[in-house]
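Record type: monomer structure entry
Structure origin: computed from sequence
Chain ID: A
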Amino acid sequence: MQCTRENIVFDYLINQLKHSKLIQKIIIATTTNKEDDLIVKFAKKNQIEFFRGKENDVLDRYYQCAKNFSSNNILRITSDNPLTDPSVMDDLIINYQKISCDYASTSLIRTYPFGIDAEIFSFSSLEKTWKNAILPSEREHVSPYMKKNSNIFKQFNLRNKIKVPLVRLTIDRKEDLELLTPKHRIFLEAYTKGINSWLSSNKLPIEFLLTRISPDPWSVLDTLAWGRVMSWTLSHGWSGALTRQSIINKVGYEMAQELGVFYPDDNPAEIPRGIDVNSLQLDEMIDYGTDREHKYYDVPNESPLMLKAVG
């Protein structure tokens, strides 16, 4: 596909997905933020279904979107992966149907390049996750609860049939930005503006008060860099991937899953809202932070695509 000024990142991704033989409907799941009006304008112009929901609770946004469109199965693709391979998406859907699993992904064990990522799950799995996921990370990233609970959700990992380098085919750093035309930058700049708006209108987390540090304004490059950090953290880098594969080869996939180290669910993720730092000792703050019923600070996140895949 030729890169022209008339096209934007969404164009590339959606045009790729239109080559799928099994995806029935494309739905853009974005936020209710004013800056995302641009995304809605794009959807309307291109006659694409869309849904608007919560900014920080992406899991709720997906659940409400799936419920609104009566989706039985949902294929999730994020908008920073415009080079998604439709044939891989179809392979994932075929195996998901054949095995009758609850959750299938291309990256439980990564064998595809970064940017060729997708996951599919049933509405019942999404609803169960929506009801039981508590941690902010489980609400912000949609599927961590499913991945962590293989005893509840029958899982499948799509493996690449050929060995390929795990190169980056995604847009999340400076070099990627240089490839974009001015029109490509529209959404990134709108997203960046939204983050700065949030920073200026919300109380900052307690660590900023303790260190007396004020954050610099967010930039487009920061957005790309953060995507890269998330990608690196979630994959543990190439050395971690090799180590994990070596363990799997020796003890098998199920045992390797049991050997995985996860941050305890009942540990605090952040200092809760409303604590007066000057009147509390550190041990009191830690005790309060173990209460799982309190509200956490959240941060803005991406506007992913939800795809009604197979019914």
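Annotation 1: The first helix runs from residue 9 to 17.
Annotation 2: Strands lie at 25-31, 49-53, 73-77, 103-105, 119-122, 155-157, 305-308.
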